[in-house]
Amino acid sequence: MLPEVFVALAASGGTAVVQAAGTEAWDQLSARVAQWLGRGHTVAENAELERLNGTAGELRSANGSAQMRADQESLWRDRIANVLEGLESDEQQRAAAELQRLLAPYTIPHARPHGAGVVAQGDITVRADNQSIAAYNLSGGAHIGLPTRPDPSHG
């Protein structure tokens, strides 16, 4: 079983792959991820690059489907975790450090709590799906569901 820090790193990798697909960063990121996954074997690197480009194509075809994005993030998270898990401890540490350096320019900046809000370095995205709520600033309560019926005595 992978240490939690490696699981988080794999998740960052899956997110970075999905976020970069279809952007100017794609060619560079996908080549670097394929190289990392291939671990120095040209045939394996080419196969990984083909898989990555297949992901980009599927995401393009899905027109921003949140479910497709989530599925692809999970797929690449698991793929990266499997590679890390298959390495010996020394190599695992080196590979994790390489992956962290590789992903640094592509990952979402860290956010930290600040009072009642959050301070983020860089851009943030707030997104909701599946009948959920996303908010930049929400004071008070929120409720998801059908509106309540008014009391007949109130007209």
Question: What descriptors fit this protein?
Answer:
single chain; 5% strand; mainly alpha; 155 residues
* Major sheet summary line: 2 strands, antiparallel
The coarse overall form would be: elongated
Succession of helices and strands? HHHHHEE
Number-wise, the strands total 2
Q: Radius of gyration over alpha carbons?
A: 20 Å
Strand fraction: 5-15%
The mean pLDDT is 83
Side by side, the strands of the main sheet go: 1-2
> What is the distance, rounded to the nearest whole angstrom, between the alpha carbons of the first and last residues?
62 Å
Helix percent band: 40-55%
**Which regions are unreliable across 5 or more consecutive residues at pLDDT < 50?**
none
Number of helices: 5
Give the structural class: mainly alpha
Overview of the molecule:
By secondary structure, the chain is mostly helical. The chain has a domain of 103 residues. It has 5 helices and 2 strands. It has a two-stranded antiparallel sheet with strand order 1-2. Strand 1 and strand 2 form a beta hairpin. The protein is elongated, with a radius of gyration of 20 Å.
Map the helices and strands:
Blueprint: H1 4-20, H2 26-38, H3 42-61, H4 66-85, H5 89-103, E1 111-114, E2 117-120
Antiparallel strand pairs: 1-2
Question: In short, what is this structure?
Answer:
With 155 residues, the protein is mainly alpha-helical.
